Amino acid sequence: MKRTSNILTLSMALAAGSIAASADAQSAPEAAAPAPLTGVHGGDLDGAFINARSFSEPDGEKLYRRVCAGCHMPDARGAQGAGMYPALAGNRNLASADYAIYVVVKGLHGMPGVGRMMTDAQVADVVNYVRTHFGNRYGDKVTAAQVGTVR
């Protein structure tokens, strides 16, 4: 049991480090990069990161595609391989908005709390997106105030 706990702890640390490294790599300037496009703020060319520790995607769908789809897959059907990434498509656990908020903000099992890199409004947006797409039909909207109570 202790070995499993150590492996999960290590997996969480590696996943969090991987997200931060990806943010750092995408927000690092290129050696011969052209001047930034007008209207694009600091971060990578498409403006995905405000800085190396914050996402700036403007809505839940873009946050899902940038942050969540890497593990849960673009179709939200999950994956198995080096780890187990649960399907979000048709996921009954998402009936509880509080559960979904908690997982995004605090993490669960091997998933790091990626919500630490998002504002309360961004967490609400991505949770609302997942709860209303991929075969999920949970219409009760999550608010930024709800997310704030979980932090």
What's a concise summary of this model?
With 151 residues, the chain is mainly α.
Key words describing this protein structure:
151 residues; mainly alpha; two-stranded antiparallel ribbon; two-stranded antiparallel sheet; 5 helices; 6 strands
* Uncertain spans: 25-43
Order of helices and strands: HEEHEEHEEHH
Overall body shape: globular
Let me know the largest β-sheet.
2 strands, antiparallel
Question: What is the average of the pLDDT values?
Answer: 79
Distance between the termini: 29 Å
Radius of gyration: 16 Å
- Strand ordering within the main sheet: 1-2
Class derived from helix and strand content: mainly alpha
Helix share of residues? Answer: 40-55%
Find the count of extended strands (DSSP E, 2+ residues). Answer: 6
Describe the structure.
With 151 residues, this protein is mainly alpha-helical. Helix content is 46%, strand content 9%. It has 5 helices and 6 strands. Strands 1-2 form a two-stranded antiparallel ribbon. The protein starts with a helix and ends with a helix. 26% of the residues are buried.
How is the secondary structure organized here?
Layout: H1 2-27, E1 49-51, E2 54-55, H2 60-72, E3 79-80, E4 84-85, H3 97-106, E5 107-108, E6 111-112, H4 120-132, H5 144-150
Antiparallel strand pairs: 1-2, 3-4, 5-6
Helix pairs in contact: 2-4, 3-4, 4-5
